[in-house]
Specification:
By secondary structure, this protein is α+β, with helices and mostly antiparallel strands. The chain has six domains: about 10-75, Ubiquitin-like (UB roll) (Roll); about 80-150, membrane protein fhac (Ubiquitin-like (UB roll), Roll), CATH 3.10.20.310; about 160-245, Ubiquitin-like (UB roll); about 250-325, Roll (Ubiquitin-like (UB roll)), CATH 3.10.20.310; about 330-400, Ubiquitin-like (UB roll), CATH 3.10.20; about 495-755, Porin, CATH 2.40.160. The strands form nine sheets. It has a 16-stranded antiparallel beta barrel with strand order 18-19-20-21-22-23-24-27-28-29-30-33-34-36-37-38. The two termini are about 65 Å apart.
């Protein structure tokens, strides 16, 4: 309250402060900015406003009394304690860090209201748009109050619908698979990505744009991502508005040189783009890198590759000329790394193909940044170049933020054949900050126990040379077989690239294999219905295998793999080829050669709604001495041909009904995965499959009491799959029907598998 002074002013001879308890009078006078002497009404009003706006006083009065001026205040109380009520999702400690009000400080209603808004914003980031926060005070003695924030968290405001406007080439269902944000569905209790987060929407817009660009839609625009909140604030409707444009393919692909004396013929021969294929920015980037590497191999420095693209609107083709131009002569002065408290500098530095003193290549620096992020050691990694000490030098700054790289996992698995199993694993992917992987795993099932220790050095001798070491110990106590097994071994290996998409692994192996606890089989005998069980003899072949006791295998092996999917050029599929051979005969008890091969091809069709996949796999075991192969080394085809039990096909002793395994197997599997029309967020899709193959051939069938069938007999099956992605792991239901089979084969018309880590 301000009592009006006379218009001509007031001659103040004394200023008195009343009502203050915690704030001294001198501080109040300083805030008021007024003292003795001639004082105008405007000055009194300014003094009043200054005290009122200080946030320290509940009421302020400026009272002229003759020549004396009285400033009467009522201070805001001090905050005794701050408490939160009604909060469950956000703990008190987290909320205390959000607010600005503090205990033992002056209470401010404006600050309390601002704190309530900050708390509500924290809940909105958790997807709880209906959350409300009300600050209240409880008055205590000595002019103190308790500040209480009463919180009504409300339910998560789920995204009820993700819709798209302007999409013609791809369905809403396909585009939803691209987004990080998901619709609420059956599993909304577990899926936390179905709440609205503005930052995630920005990421989704970029993901959508990248999706279209990688499929040749070079003019795509993501115009808007709007979120409309339901009136009850219990649901959000998100709509992405986009403009696809036309899809373009590669037209003429060529190389040209603007550098005097440099012929582009060899560079053009190195290009790997096919005219007529769908345009992809990653394909252009990959070929630029290929040409830059070729230039370095030829000793050419400061050569840049500029892709010059010409549009042909009529044919919707993009002609690309990879032009070699002379770049600026800029060198890398140094590479500075900060933020790596655990990870050694050398782990980060080896992600650069550039070292101090090399020509500066902005593209290589960007790719190095991607490699650093892909390590998984850092929550964030920023790489940028700044001017160096001279105009022709730059300094590359790497700023990283460490994150935990160790994991302790507990797991469970289930299969109709394998039963219930549990596992525990301890893995560190950045051991001692050296970028090495150390892992220990142990798993148990109904009939088996497996354990292993793994060590991987990804940059042995500072090169792209992966050193691997694995040791394992496995035991089986198989109730469905007449014997148990014990297997142990060590496998050191090195792996290195032999081409852009190909890698080669060379290994040595030392294994011990033991066949033990041979016993007779027990089965129902339909010929004697009064007898519940009958004892069957064990196959003499297995008996001879068991008589050889424990065997040592010592040898070398190699595996070549080619995976076109890692290039990213074709986002709709690719090819995986893998060939392996192992020779056992460097000492030990067994001389043999084992060869395996796998070829996989997959692609998406029908606007990427359906995935088609074909897998061809085979293996051969050849003994180099007079000893026959052993049952523990032969193939059983378990799981490779659906519709049959593990060990349900292949060579069999017809007298004892023992599965013997075969020296050869070949399988062809064809699959189609497709949506079932259910909401994508349910995670349920379907599939069809058809499997063909066989397991055959034995070395020794002598001494049998009955016939042994080890011939090549084609088996085939067809079936339907239901896939369900759940919080406890991916479920797969297979319903199979065996078409081609032998009378003694063991069928399995249904199979359920689940595997998860938590």
């Amino acid at each position: 309250m301000l009592m009006q002074a006379h218009a001509q002013g007031l001659n103040v001879s004394q200023v008195t402060v009343e009502g203050n308890q915690n704030i001294d009078a001198a501080s109040i006078l300083k805030l008021a900015g007024i003292g003795r002497g001639e004082t105008t009404a405007a000055q009194l009003n300014d003094a009043y406003q200054a005290l009122q706006n200080s946030g320290l006083f509940e009421t302020v009065e400026v009272l002229p009394q003759g020549s004396r001026l009285v400033i009467r205040v009522k201070e805001y109380p001090l905050v005794n304690v701050i408490s939160f009520e009604g909060n469950k999702r956000l703990k008190d400690e987290a909320l205390a860090e959000i607010i600005q009000s503090k205990a033992r400080r002056v209470y401010s209603p404006a600050k309390a209201e601002a704190d309530a808004a900050l708390i509500a914003e924290g809940y909105r980031e958790q997807g709880r748009l209906a959350a409300s926060v009300e600050p209240k005070i409880i008055r205590r003695s000595d002019n103190m109050v308790d500040l209480v924030f009463e919180i009504a968290e409300g339910k998560p405001t789920e995204i009820e619908r993700l819709a798209f406007v302007g999409n013609r080439a791809f369905s809403d269902r396909r585009l939803r698979q691209v987004l990080e944000t998901k619709q609420a569905g059956l599993l909304r209790t577990f899926i936390r990505r179905d709440t609205l987060q503005p930052d995630r929407l920005e990421l989704d817009k970029q993901l959508l744009k990248d999706f279209y660009l990688s499929r040749g839609y070079v003019d795509v625009q993501i115009l808007d991502a709007s979120a409309e909140v339901a009136r009850e604030r219990d649901g959000v409707f998100v709509t992405f508005t986009l403009q696809e444009g036309q899809q373009f393919t590669f037209g003429k692909i060529s190389a040209a040189s603007e550098i005097e004396g440099l012929d582009a013929t060899e560079f053009e021969a190195a290009l790997k783009l096919r005219p007529g294929s769908v345009y992809s920015p990653s394909g252009v980037e990959t070929n630029i890198t290929r040409l830059e590497n070729l230039a370095l191999k030829k000793g050419l420095t400061f050569v840049s590759i500029e892709p010059r693209i010409t549009r042909n609107e009529k044919t919707r083709e993009l002609d690309v000329v990879f032009t070699l131009v002379r770049g600026q002569k800029i060198f890398v002065e140094r590479i500075d790394i900060e933020g790596n408290t655990t990870t050694l500098d050398q782990v980060v530095r080896r992600q650069f193909r550039t070292v101090e003193g090399d020509p500066f290549n902005p593209r290589e620096i960007r790719q190095s940044a991607e490699r650093i992020r892909a390590l998984g050691y850092f929550a964030d990694a920023r790489v940028n170049a700044e001017p160096g000490t001279s105009p022709d030098q730059v300094v590359v700054n790497v700023d990283v933020e460490e994150q935990p790289t160790g994991s302790l996992s507990f797991g469970a698995s289930y299969g109709v054949s394998s039963g219930l199993g549990f596992s525990i694993g301890l893995t560190e992917t950045n051991f001692l900050g050296r970028g090495q992987t150390v892992g220990f795993n142990i798993s148990t099932g109904t009939d088996n126990t497996n354990s292993s220790i793994t060590f991987i050095e990804p940059a042995f001798l500072g090169r792209d040379l992966k050193l691997k070491f694995n040791t394992f110990y496995n035991e089986t106590d198989n109730q469905d077989a007449t014997y148990d097994t014990r297997l142990a071994g060590i496998v050191p290996a090195i792996e290195f690239p032999v081409s852009e998409l190909g890698r080669l692994e060379l290994r040595y192996f030392l294994r011990y294999s033991d066949l033990k606890d041979l016993r007779q089989a027990v089965a129902d005998d339909p010929a004697t219905p009064d007898v519940d069980e009958t004892v069957l003899p064990t196959s003499p072949i297995i008996g001879r295998d068991e008589a050889r006791e424990g065997l040592f295998y010592s040898g070398i092996g190699a595996t070549y793999s080619y995976d076109s999917r890692i290039s990213g050029v074709n986002p709709n599929g690719g090819v995986l080829l893998r060939f392996g051979v192992d020779y056992a005969g460097l000492g030990g008890d067994v001389d043999s050669i084992t060869a395996t091969a796998l070829a996989l091809a997959e692609t998406k069709v029908w606007n990427e709604e359906v995935t088609l996949r074909a897998v061809f796999e085979g293996g051969a075991l050849h003994m180099l001495n007079d000893d026959p192969s052993r049952v523990t080394d032969r193939y059983f085809g378990g799981g490779k041909i659906r519709g049959f039990e593990p060990g349900g096909i292949g060579p069999r002793d017809l007298a004892t009904d023992d599965a013997l395994g075969g020296n050869f197997f070949a399988v062809a599997r064809f699959e189609a995965d497709f949506p079932l029309g259910l909401p994508e967020e349910y995670g349920i899709s379907g599939g069809l499959f058809a499997d063909f193959g066989s397991v055959w051939s034995l070395d020794d069938v002598a001494g049998q009491s009955g016939a042994v069938d080890d011939g090549f007999h084609l088996r085939s099956s067809v079936g339907v799959s239901i896939f369900w992605t759940t919080p406890i792991g991916p479920l797969r239901f297979n319903f199979s029907k065996a078409l081609d089979k032998q009378d003694y084969d063991k069928e399995q018309s249904f199979d359920l598998t689940i595997s998860t880590k938590f």
